[in-house]
Write a structure and sequence with these properties.
Elements: H1 2-7, E1 12-15, H2 23-32, E2 36-39, H3 47-60, E3 65-68, H4 88-94, H5 97-114, E4 118-119, H6 144-160, E5 167-170, E6 186-187, H7 191-208, E7 213-216, E8 220-221, H8 233-242, E9 248-250, H9 257-260, H10 265-274, E10 280-282, H11 286-301, H12 307-329, H13 341-351, E11 353-355, E12 369-375, H14 391-398, E13 403-407, E14 415-416, E15 422-428, H15 432-439, E16 443-444, E17 446-451, E18 467-469, H16 475-486
């Protein structure tokens, strides 16, 4: 038992608080044999610094694995320094599976350069709830077969360049109306819907990518279990026995409100082990990590969890570490970041969707354009992790005679184009009420409407004018959008989702 207790810390994936290790973190990692880490934006300053941080951890824990959420599009961790590619739904819009594998390769090369072993992607969630507040265009869409094919292709791209993948969020987060970061989501559906919509991509991912990893969701599927999948014994039975899955299972972050506000540490850890978890992610808070680790130790000491069960996780973790090493053997590490930006841009250009394209006239560089940007929050002028990106700068660079205005609240007034200017309305971080209001504005010279992020808001539009979708606001996506405004030859005319 002593050996199990000594090494049980390897069943945790730890987040670091800052850009360097604190003394307390160093001691905890060393004493508890922590060997898996997740890196966030708060840990990043520049490539050299993140490499130094990873190496400082390896000095204490040489055989560690390093993970990062670099999904592409909305969820990235290194601003514009590393490949952002485009969102999964944008990739789906290209309808070209070879581009998806290429996108996985591009991400993998930059993550390998920074020192990572794995990426917590792709999403296997089928987003068939249009008002989903947390998945949305992070998903490959609402078609289970397409989600399966594109997710598998993305994972293969990661693997081919030396990076482990992680399919998430088992057994599906695509039907939720609540963000599990904020509360516990419940999904009601029939058994047929659960099997054919939610579970289907995961079952296929396991068949084609059997030795990487999966992440469970803090979501209750009532037809499957009265408990969140991440702490339900039904998950363990389904994964290990019914589906024969032999790879690693990560929990989603334990500090998310879906668990923290509804379950005790005892319920979370015991339930997690029964759900098949091999690595509990504690992304922030050393005290919280200690609490969960002490809880696991107590469960082992009190024989509520067998040593054999913990040793099974030990074995799977060691096999994953060996797989990580094997993937890197035949891969040459890049010597700098963002070497394939031109390819990112070509993918972005092919992702742009335009409806009513027959009414669209390209905008020439010398023309006067008024860009009206409607948004409830202009945080989208900055990448979430603090790396500055200016929407206005991208448009003005390509259209030097343009003007740009922000509108955070729509009032009853008319916007009038002057001197024959073309007006392009941009929408980001909007809600249904804002979008409905756009229908009733009298805008003289309205040339096109652009949804910069959430494509589902289109369902409330009644205007029959050219409507474009970029599926995200990363710089490469904005440049792809600008290209479409100047040359619409590469745009597609079919949304990545059904509305």
């Amino acid at each position: 038992m002593n050996n199990v207790l000594k090494n049980v810390g390897s069943l945790f994936t730890l987040g670091i608080e800052g850009k360097t290790l604190s003394k307390e973190e160093r001691l905890f990692i060393k004493e508890e044999n922590i060997s898996s880490f997740i890196i966030f934006s708060r840990n990043y300053q520049n490539p050299k610094q993140i490499n130094d941080l990873i190496n400082s951890i390896k000095e204490i824990s040489p055989c560690s694995l390093f993970w990062v959420d670099q999904e592409g599009g909305l969820v990235i961790r290194f601003g514009e320094d590393a490949a952002t590619i485009i969102s999964p739904m944008g990739l789906s819009a290209t309808n070209d599976i070879s581009l998806v594998e290429k996108a996985g390769q591009i991400v993998a090369e930059d993550m390998l350069f920074l020192g990572f072993d794995g990426v917590f992607a792709p999403l296997l969630d089928v987003n068939y709830q249009p008002d989903n507040p947390v998945i949305s265009y992070r998903s490959f869409g609402d078609n289970p077969s397409k989600v399966r094919d594109f997710a598998i292709s993305f994972a293969r791209g990661l693997n081919s360049k030396g990076i482990l993948s992680c399919g998430k969020h088992f057994p599906g987060h695509g039907a939720t109306l609540i963000d599990s970061h904020l509360d516990l989501p419940y999904v009601k559906c029939s058994e047929s819907e659960f099997l054919n919509n939610n579970l289907f991509p995961f079952r296929e991912f396991i068949r084609h990518i059997p030795y990487d990893s999966l992440m469970t969701a803090h979501v209750v599927h009532s037809v499957f279990s009265p408990l969140p999948a991440s702490i339900s014994p039904n998950s363990g039975t389904l994964l290990r026995e019914d589906l024969g899955y032999k790879g690693i299972v990560f929990s989603d972050c334990l500090e998310m409100a879906a668990l923290r506000h509804h379950f005790t540490p005892y319920e979370v850890i015991k339930g997690g082990i029964l759900a098949g978890t091999d690595s509990f992610i504690v992304s922030r808070g050393l005290d919280r990590a200690k609490l969960y680790l002490d809880t696991l130790k107590s469960l082992i000491i009190n024989k509520e969890i067998t040593e054999q069960r913990i040793e099974e996780s030990f074995l799977r973790i060691e096999l994953l570490k060996q797989r990580a090493a094997d993937l890197k053997k035949s891969v040459k590490k890049p010597n700098k970041l963002r070497t394939r930006y031109a390819e990112e841009l070509e993918i972005a250009k092919k992702s742009i969707t335009m409806l009513y394209g027959e009414k669209f006239q390209v905008i020439k560089e010398e023309e006067k354009v008024i860009f009206l940007h409607f948004s409830q929050s202009f945080e989208d002028s900055k990448v979430v992790d603090g790396k500055f990106i200016n929407v206005e700068r991208v448009f003005k660079k390509k259209f030097p005679f343009s003007s740009y205005s922000r509108v955070s609240k729509i009032k009853d007034k008319m916007f009038i184009g002057q001197n024959n200017s073309k007006i392009v309305v941009l929408v980001s971080k909007g809600d249904r009420e804002m979008v409905k209001s756009i229908n009733h504005l009298e805008i003289q010279g309205l040339h096109a409407l652009v949804f910069l992020d959430n494509p589902y808001l289109y369902k409330d539009i009644t205007l029959e004018i050219p409507i474009l979708f970029s599926y995200g606001i990363r710089e490469v996506q904005l440049e792809g959008l600008v290209f479409a405004l100047q040359d619409s030859s590469l745009v597609n005319n079919k949304l990545a989702i059904t509305l």
